[in-house]
Amino acid sequence: MSKKVKVGIIGLGFMGTTHLDIYKANDKAEVVAIADVNPDKLAGDISSVFANIGGGDNSVPLDLSAMALYKDGMDLINDANVDLVDICLPTHLHRKYAVAALEAEKHLMLEKPMGRTSEDAKAIAAAAAKSDKCFTVGMCVRAWPEYRYVYEQLKSGKYGEVKNAFFKRFSPTMEGKSWNDWFSKEEFSGGALLDLHLHDIDQIVSLFGRPTAVTSTGSKAVRSDNAVDHVFTFYDFEDSKMVVSEGGWSATDNSPFEMSFQLVCEKATVIFSPTGLKEYYEDGTVEEVDLSGCPGPTGWHVELDNLLSAIQNGIPANKYLTPAEAVDGICIAEAEQKSIDNNGVKTKVEYKQEIG
Known about the structure:
Layout: E1 5-10, H1 14-24, E2 29-35, H2 39-42, E3 68-70, H3 73-77, E4 84-87, H4 94-103, E5 107-111, H5 118-130, E6 135-138, H6 145-156, E7 162-172, H7 186-189, H8 191-195, H9 198-208, E8 213-220, E9 228-236, E10 242-251, E11 258-265, E12 268-273, E13 276-281, E14 286-288, H10 299-313, H11 323-341, E15 347-348
Parallel strand pairs: 1-2, 1-4, 2-3, 4-5, 5-6, 7-10
Antiparallel strand pairs: 7-11, 8-9, 8-15, 9-10, 11-12, 12-13, 13-14
């Protein structure tokens, strides 16, 4: 058996605790270090952690006694016992810690978004290009079973050409649910547009490539200081297909999380909804897709296992996502922000092509 990858996690919020649970259940990994500014979390108390999707019983204290514990993530990065740094910090801190980890010659798992701005993301991608270590960004939906299955079927030609595509991602409010309420601060999170809706932007890039322009409308300051809390966007690919996505976290905190999509193709309409994934063929046949043989159970599990395997085998960790694609998603989100700020004017996407 290959040597276990020694993991250090910076940030024990929703994603940090989720990653911790997944690593603990994966025999390729050993979590050896944790960093967090909150002393209660370092003592194992994660009762303040809120999950808008999934999540375990956070009332049960964690046993972190076998791990090195740090108040400062930089100290964890400099721990010689850590092979892989997993950064689950507020978005505005990603560039600082990600670049430091790569320069310290650590493998890196960086939660999404890659950076608070496309310039931040480009700087991280540039640092990754200089490193020989494995690097990936937590755009987990690319590895989510339903989304990955449809991606593979589309690429195989099973459904034929896509005519229309619709993506939706709704979350209960994240207001008051994070350290220093950073989700609600536009400067820190970029709002629902960058933190939540970005997943569907990324799916669109994955399936169709780069749109040339976007037309967006959105609502601001519903649950935040002045961030976009809900967005609706049309994507221009300069062809006949219509591609639309909608997302937001303006709903009440007791509302359900929903991620869904509908693809209208030449041979079939494919719908993923809370009731499952189904294929509706032009000949009248309806197929309920059995995903039991797909990697899973979630995209988080798949992306982390892929990263661990890449580290053990000395290969790039880009099966699901490249750094350039992660930068592209943020460039598109910034164009959507500009369109919203200009009352829905069609806006060209400015890509950071020099890092491609």
